[in-house]
Amino acid sequence: MGTRTPPTLPRSAAAAIVLVTLGVGFARCQAILTAPAGSTLSMTANPEFIPAHGGVSVISVLVVEPTGTVVPDGTVVQFFTTLGRIDEQGRTNDGVARVNLLATGLSGPAAVTAVSGGEAAPPPSSTTPGTTTPGSTTTTLRPQEGQGRNPPLGAAQGVGSVSVTVAIGSALPSRIVLTAEPARITAQRASLIRAIVLDANGNPVANVPVFFTLRVPTATERLAGGGRPVFTDTNGVAEDVLSTTAAATAPPRVVIVQAIASDGTTAEVAVAVN
Questions:
Q1: What is the model's pTM?
Q2: Which of 159, 166, 149, 83 has the alpha carbon at shortest distance from 114?
Q3: The predicted structure's pLDDT at residue 122
Q4: What per-residue string of b and e applies to 23-49 under the rule 16 or more CB within 10 Å gives b?
Q5: Which superfamily is assigned to 40-119+147-169 in CATH?
Q6: Residue ranges covered by each domain of the chain
Q7: 3-state SS string over the chain?
Q8: Among candidate residues 149, 268, 254, the one with its CA nearest the CA of residue 212
Q9: Mean pLDDT of successive 10-residue segments in the chain (274 residues)?
Q10: Candidates 3.40.710.10, 1.10.10.60, 3.40.50.300, 2.60.40.10; correct CATH number of 175-273?
Q11: By the 8 A CB rule, do 255 and 180 touch?
Q12: CATH topology identical between 40-119+147-169 and 175-273
């Protein structure tokens, strides 16, 4: 019997195999560097309020590994927004990734989210007598969940991901008209605090975040909003509710409610208690 010569591949097929192999190796070398799971992301927006036409806010995210050190240069952070336009990715330098949020003509709260690395694996579950009920479930909230309709304005921190709100508006606030109805509260009667935000021409400004606070916090008076931003409606109106738990026998006094817009414009109104 003669010796059989093994079949040989055509040169074109062999070349294709080599190119595919090199391409796979190159793709592996180009893998995206993201933060380790469980890294902390601290985001700030500067400024927090931008005009609807051509406004730009610089979004900065500091990424710190679980060990407490900043991530290596070139770590990729992904960005998303519900309004406006933002770079899809940013790479860190000295632990900070920066991108621009650009307003595109629409007004409203823009929820900007940054993601890198993901959350750390949850610790092993354990049962403590007397702390759980059979059949019940425990829900762990992700960062920013359960904090109202919008993420915090301008600055926030999260693990694996973080979100902040940037207010995009057609005009900047210039004046706030603040009222309380009624101007006296008791434990049985609350007061509606209404802020009307106006621009320099006296027109109402929509989609502006307003913070309602007490000038001097007390143990018995509270605002329903809990300090979260309340965005003005199309009439420039934002509202909160002030209530008290003071006993009817407590001496009468006055508290001052403040309304602060995103650019620092402030108004105050006095409310009597008892």
A1: 0.59
A2: 159
A3: 62
A4: eeeeeeeeeeebbbeebbbbbbbeebb
A5: Immunoglobulins (2.60.40.10)
A6: 40-119+147-169, 175-273
A7: CCCCCCCCCCHHHHHHHHHHHHHHHHHHHCCCCCCCCCCEEEEEEECCEEECEEEEEEEEEEEECCCCCECCCCCEEEEEECCCEECCEEECECCEEEEEEEEECCCEEEEEEEECCCCCCCCCCCCCCCCCCCCCCCCCCCCCCCCCCCCCECEEEEECEEEEEEEEECCCCCEEEEEEECCEEECCECEEEEEEEECCCCCECCCCEEEEEECCCCCCEEECCCCCCEECCCCCEEEEEEEECCCCCCCCEEEEEEEEECCCCEEEEEEEEC
A8: 268
A9: 55 51 50 90 92 90 96 96 95 97 89 89 49 32 44 91 87 89 96 94 85 95 92 93 94 96 89 95
A10: 2.60.40.10
A11: no
A12: yes
| Amino acid code (one letter) for 4 | R
To which residue do tokens 């080599």 refer?
18
Tokens of 51: 């005009």
Query: And the tokens for 63?
Result: 């990424």
